[in-house]
Amino acid sequence: MSKKKKFNEKPFAYHQEIELSITTLTNLGLGLGRVALGEPGMEPGWVVMVAFALPGERIRARIFRNHGNYSEADLVEVLSASPHRITPPCPLFGRCGGCQYQNLDYGQQLEWKRRQVAELVEHMAGLTLAVLPVVGSPRPFGYRSKITPHFNAPREGGELAIGFLRQGNRFDVVDVPRCEIATEPINARLAQARAEIRRRADEGGFERGATLLFREAGGVVATGYGDRVTEEVSLGPGETLRLSFLARDFFQNNPFLLPAFAAYVRDQARAGGARFLVDAYCGSGLFALASARVFERVVGVEVSESSVAFARENAAANGIPNATFVAADASAIFSSLEFPRNETAVVIDPPRRGCDEAFLRQLLGFGPRAVVYVSCDPATQVRDLRGFLAAGYAATAVQPFDLFPQTRHLECVITLAREDIAKGQTAPDIRGP
């Protein structure tokens, strides 16, 4: 095979095969091992990352990229397998880029995700706070209520692949007739849509590719981005929320773990004794409405006007009179907030990139009694955590939830409390309802 253009040949040649032992998993879901460079007997030090290799395994890998301080390689052969390696249910595992852990026992997936969060908390934030065991999904497969498969522009004479990006590739699409982590109603609708798309493609109905959407709620699958859907969330005996939103809008994609997840956020927000709640990045009102019964007043803020309209509708439909929703940027809410800061908790669930500086500046300037930080990216969450620690907050709990089994992703909830309140030295409130 010809050498890849512009390939950095140090320390390994392109497609050079090496043997190494895998010792850990990165937060990107890659197996990581170290190899010795130079003289025989030298201590292993150079990092090599290998997709689908598991801790405790001895493997043969093929190098495809060298960076300044590590290399990337493809798994060629497992020479000595981990006792936790299992047969993936999906025949496309390893080619489709959607899942990273189908070859790893689910209990071990949870433990490795906990370790990854613990390492971030210790090394990025300098804390030795114990990370609680990951709350697992009641369904490790068949749980995902939204998928967005896509296809590229049809090629004459070629079969149209409809699915997800190939592992390690930003352009090639792997044909996916069935997704093992999606719900059964979605898979049934996917099969129908694939047949219709291929029929239209054969008739010349597509000049370019497209991204599809399948969102299931209550057993009904929506396929239009602007379709209205309604999800029921049971928070306990006799307490069920009916939440409506657009299929395209953000909403958690694991309805089977969602009730425990929302209840935990509510309980953490109330545990510090706050009377009022602010739900920043509130979407269609999940956390605000799930928490409203244990607070005197709740305010939700969301930049999407359509989501705020649904949040208001959801409050009315569920008979919740003490929740108000505002369409505004989350960074512009605290200057006009009437809640007393010493009696207010704030729930934040920002995008994957974390909180921006303007938002953090206003939030820390307001100085609420407690903050419950929800994130789908623990790395950016722990990055932001350092700012809270510097501003006089203490992290009291770190609880991961596995809303994304078989993948490297997870949700994490970090609870923060103002240290001066814990010590009984609170500054006077300057606002009041």
Kindly list the characteristics that best describe this protein:
OB fold (Dihydrolipoamide Acetyltransferase, E2P), single chain, 433 residues, 8 helices, Rossmann fold, seven-stranded mixed β-sheet, alpha+beta, 3 domains
Show the helix and strand layout.
Layout: E1 17-25, E2 30-35, E3 46-51, E4 58-66, E5 70-80, H1 106-125, E6 146-147, E7 150-151, E8 163-165, E9 173-175, H2 184-202, E10 210-211, E11 214-217, E12 220-222, E13 228-236, E14 239-246, H3 258-271, E15 276-280, H4 286-291, E16 297-302, H5 305-317, E17 323-327, E18 344-348, H6 357-366, E19 370-375, H7 378-390, E20 393-401, E21 411-418, H8 419-422
Parallel strand pairs: 3-5, 15-16, 15-18, 16-17, 18-19
Antiparallel strand pairs: 1-2, 1-4, 2-3, 4-5, 6-11, 7-10, 8-9, 11-12, 13-14, 19-21, 20-21
